[in-house]
Amino acid sequence: MDGKNFYKKCLGFDSGRSDVKEAMFNKEGELVLRKYPSIAAPAPMNANDVPLMDGVRYYVGELALYAKPEEIIQTSDSSKIKLTLPLFLEKTLKENNLDPEELEAIVTGLSLAELTEAKEFQKRLTRFKISGKSYNFKDRIYITPQGVGAKYAIEYYHKDAPKAYIIVDIGFSTIDVVLVINGEVRLEFVKGFKDEGIIKMIRPLQDYIYKNFKEHIEIREAQSILDSGKYFIDGEDHDLSDYIKDLAKDYASYTIDTLRHRFKSEFKKYQKIYFVGGGAKWIEKAGELPSLAQVVENSEYYNAIGNLLKACVIVEEKKEV
C-alpha cells in the first residue's frame, strides 16, 4: 500500500475515552500519528476563537484541561462522547489542514460493548454545523468495532502473524476481545466488557488521593498522575510511583486472570495474543504477560492505524465499483 495515494483522502479517527487518536498519510506517504485529550468544556460566548456548536462555545482538547473541573465534559459515557464527536472531528480537520470535500473515507471505532449505538454515532458525525460552517460526510463515515480495526494494523506490521490469534484491546473504559482465524475476524466470538479498562486503576487512585490528601480529583487528572507517577499540590510534587506500580500489578493480574477464565479454551488453542490500546502498557510494565502474548509498539494508536488502513481499502474498493 502506497500511502501517497491516500494523502488527504483517508482518515483513521479513534475518539477514545481519554484521548482522540488520529492516523493519516502525509504527501510523502509516511504515517502520521497524533493525539489530544478527548475532553471539552463550555466557554464564554466572547471566546471568539473557539468553536460554536448548537449555540454554545466550547474549549476542546488541551484548552479544556484548564476549565473548572465541574465544567469539563467527561467522555467516559456514550452520551457525552456523542455530544462532543463533531467538535473532535472538526479540530482534527482544522489542525491537519484536511479539506472535508477531499476526504473520501473516515473510519472511527466504537467499543464492542456499545456497538448497538453505532448508527447514532454515525449520524452524529455525518452532518453537523460548527461556527457557521456546515459539514456533510454522507456515505463517508464508517464505524468499526474497537479491536477489529486493530486487525488491519497487525496484518500491516506483523507479516508473520499466525493463522489464529487473539486481539485484546484495553481501552480507558472497556476491554474488547477479538478472535481472528485465517485473516478473518470471527464476529460471532467478539466480546466487549464495560468498566474493565484502566478505569479500574483510576477509581482506586482517586480514593487514594482523597484518603491521603483530602482532595477530589477528576478522571483526567487521575490519568495524568498514572502516567507521570507524581501528584502536584500546594507547590509540591509527591512521588506516587511505588503505589502506582503496585496498582498496575494488581490490575494486570486481575485482567490476565479474568481473560484466562473467560477465554480458557481460546488461550490454549490460539497461537498468539496481541495486546493493543492505551491500557496495554500497564500489562507489559507489570510483567504479567502470558507466554504467547505481545504488547505491540505504538499500542495506543493501533485502532487509529487500523481504521486508516481500512479507510484506504474502502477507497480502493469504491474505485473498482
Question: How would you explain this protein's 3D organization?
Answer:
This protein is of the alpha+beta class. The protein has a domain at 3-147 and 302-320: Nucleotidyltransferase, domain 5. 36% of the residues lie in helices and 27% in strands. It contains nine helices and 18 strands. The protein has helices at 78-95, 118-126, 148-157, 199-213, 219-228, 241-262, 264-269, 280-285, 302-320, and strands at 10-15, 19-25, 31-37, 40-43, 52-53, 56-60, 105-110, 127-130, 133-136, 141-145, 164-170, 174-181, 184-185, 191-194, 230-233, 236-239, 272-276, 293-295. Strands 11, 12, 13, 14, 17 and 18 form a six-stranded mixed sheet that branches. Strands 3-2-1-7-10 form a five-stranded mixed sheet. Strands 4-6-5 form a three-stranded antiparallel sheet. Helix 1 (78-95) packs parallel to helix 2. The model has no long low-confidence stretch (mean pLDDT 91).
Keywords for this entry:
five-stranded mixed sheet; single chain; alpha+beta; 321 residues; 9 helices; Nucleotidyltransferase, domain 5; 27% strand; six-stranded mixed sheet
